[in-house]
Design brief:
By secondary structure, this protein is α/β, with parallel strands linked by helices. The protein is built from 23 helices and 14 strands. Strand 11, helix 18 and strand 12 form a beta-alpha-beta unit. The protein is globular, with a radius of gyration of 25 Å. Bound molecules: adenosine-5'-triphosphate. Its EC number is 3.6.4.13.
């Protein structure tokens, strides 16, 4: 990690001349899969599908030059849909939706219908259109009316299909006026997400949707938690967005109460209801003690066990499933690539990165040390703009890495499960599972970082001999979502229930290049010897000092 930090601090500097082909690639002009007619840029602009700058807090697209004249190309663009329009069409295209429950409210076709039927304010509707949301996606069409009818909801919709707006919109619609003017006092809505990064992203989305109204929307952190310890401040808060632990710490310290909460959303619900988070989630649910509280759970995946817990938590819920449960969108082209063993993965990845690829690229490893080690190896192999993000890094390091990713400064982001869920970087076109995922759910969420908002994506998963027993499970996911799978993979035996639990959990070295370990061990030995002899040399001097005292 040290070498990596040293080389990449503040984003890696690289020689733009030397990597001019890569620069062109990043700017869209050398991309092999993009229609040239729709990709013309003036060099200062990023192509629309890479334009995730606007999602950075405080970021804005307005500073970038607007094309002054209507060119032949831009005229042509109006005739045939460009990549963004095509993506939007594909995002809102009719998907199979099943809604089960009693008295299911009718879905809406347009956002305007929400205004007519539920009195959703013009301000909210105009904020939707300002953010480019002109037509509701499947989960928005069905989920928003359900929530606006004060019903509990279990929503399962594929990655990148707009679940965030599906719960934020009805919450803001139902809250109507900012706290203080409304009845009662205290926090009125809580949104829980499993990672800090995701909570931050939801907060940003919420601020954009709430623009123009003085709702108090708080991203719960150590600092905001201490401000909110003051009840008079807390009483004015409308919405809190938080990770579970942060809420639990404040609840246990008695510096937060959730007795006035009317809307509770669990985003990435199956993660929040798994063994690691369950007790914290239950504590939060129990603290939201209003009898008329509305609860909703959202995820792209909801395995049977988690669904059972969720359904027991909800009151007379409606269950909405968009597409096929636990299945990625067909927009993502998926492949399974054989690499003989763990040591063969690095050369395979380096070879992959030597070909033209679509940055930014997300690479998933199984552990924090492996993520750091892989990032370090790529930097040492002169791969430009490598970044790393995992939960073992400090808050500042994580924030910096996120910011570089959002600004488009990271071309290759190495990460762990921490980035697998919910993170929305529209520009991510390729995902590589360097280490095999630990479950179907992990696979679906990881590859779901691409193919978002109706765009196309590509996912490559490396498998070794050790992963072979689990290959059929993932091959079935590929098949179900329309990717091609070699015949022999489908003929593999089905793993037993016991075996399935061990998916992706093979023992792997902490460093991805064990040759490096040899040199590193020698260096550590040498460093310890030098430190030891320095200590010994210092000892008599220290004694002398104490005598002088
Ligand atoms: N109605 C809409 N029209 C166009 N774009 C939309 C619409 N709703 C949401 N989006 C965009 O789609 C992208 C994905 O949305 P979001 O992050 O909410 O997906 P998600 O379903 O929560 O995915 P995940 O399961 O990975 O968390 C975002 O960039 C969002 O701005």
């Amino acid at each position: 990690m040290e070498a990596f930090q040293l080389l990449s601090r503040g984003g890696l500097n690289f020689d733009k001349k030397r990597f001019k082909n890569d620069v062109r690639l990043f700017q869209g002009s050398a991309s092999i899969s993009v229609d040239k007619d729709t990709q013309e840029t003036d060099g200062s602009e990023l192509p629309a599908e890479l334009d995730f700058f606007k999602y950075a807090q405080g970021g804005s697209t307005s500073k970038r030059k607007a094309p002054s004249k209507e060119t032949a190309q831009s005229k042509k663009r109006k005739l045939s849909p460009g990549p963004d329009e095509a993506a939007a069409q594909s995002l809102v295209a009719k998907q199979r939706v099943t809604a089960k429950g009693s008295e299911v409210p009718q879905a809406v076709e347009t956002f305007e219908e929400l205004g007519e039927r539920y009195g959703l304010s013009n301000q909210l509707l105009s904020n939707l259109s300002k953010n480019g949301f002109s037509t509701p996606t499947g989960i928005q069409s069905h989920g928003v009316p359900i929530l606006l009818n004060s019903r509990d909801l279990a929503a399962i919709s594929p990655t990148g299909t707009g679940k965030t707006i599906a719960y934020l919109l009805p919450i803001l619609g139902a809250l109507k006026t900012p706290n203080g003017k409304a009845d009662g006092s205290g926090v009125r809505a809580v949104i829980v997400a499993p990672t800090r990064e995701l909570a931050h992203q939801i907060h940003n989305e919420c601020l954009k949707l709430a623009e123009g109204r003085k709702w108090r929307i708080v991203l719960f952190s150590k600092a905001t938690a201490s401000t909110l310890a003051d009840k008079s401040v807390r009483d004015k808060i409308d919405i809190i967005i938080s990770t579970p632990l942060r809420l639990v710490v404040s609840l246990q310290a008695g510096t937060l109460d959730l007795k006035n909460v009317r809307h509770l959303v669990l985003d990435e619900a199956d993660r929040l209801l798994d063994a690691e988070f369950l007790s914290q989630t239950q504590e939060i649910v129990a603290a939201c003690s209003r009898t008329d509280i509305q609860k909703a759970v959202f995820s792209a995946t909801l395995p049977a066990g988690a669904e059972k817990i969720a359904m027991e938590m909800l009151h007379n819920p409606i269950r909405v499933v968009v597409g096929l449960k636990d299945t990625p969108l067909p927009l993502i082209t998926q492949t399974l690539t054989y690499v003989r063993d763990d040591h063969s993965k690095l050369p395979s990845l380096l070879q992959y990165l030597a070909q033209p690829y679509n940055p930014p690229l997300l690479v998933f490893t199984s552990t924090q040390p492996r993520a750091s080690s892989l990032a370090e190896e790529l930097v040492l192999n002169n791969i430009p703009n490598v970044d790393c993000l995992h939960a073992g890094m400090t808050k500042k390091e994580r924030e910096d890495a996120m910011s570089r990713m959002r600004k488009g400064e990271s071309w290759v982001m190495i990460s762990t499960e921490v980035m697998a869920r919910g993170m929305d970087f529209k520009g991510v076109r390729e995902v590589i599972n360097y280490d095999f995922p630990t479950s179907v759910q992990s696979y679906v969420h990881r590859i779901g970082r691409t193919g978002r908002a109706g765009r196309e994506g590509k996912a490559v998963t490396y498998f070794t001999d050790d992963d072979a027993p689990h290959l059929k499970t993932i091959a079935n996911v590929l098949l179900q979502s329309g990717s091609t799978v070699p015949e022999w993979m489908l003929k593999l035996p089905k793993p037993s229930k016991m075996k399935r639990k061990s998916m992706g959990k093979v023992k792997r070295a902490e460093v991805v290049n064990s040759a490096r370990k040899i040199g590193r061990n020698d260096a550590i030995k040498k460093r310890d010897m030098v430190a030891g002899s320095k200590r010994r040399a210092k000892k008599p001097a220290a004694k002398d000092e104490s005598k002088a005292d």
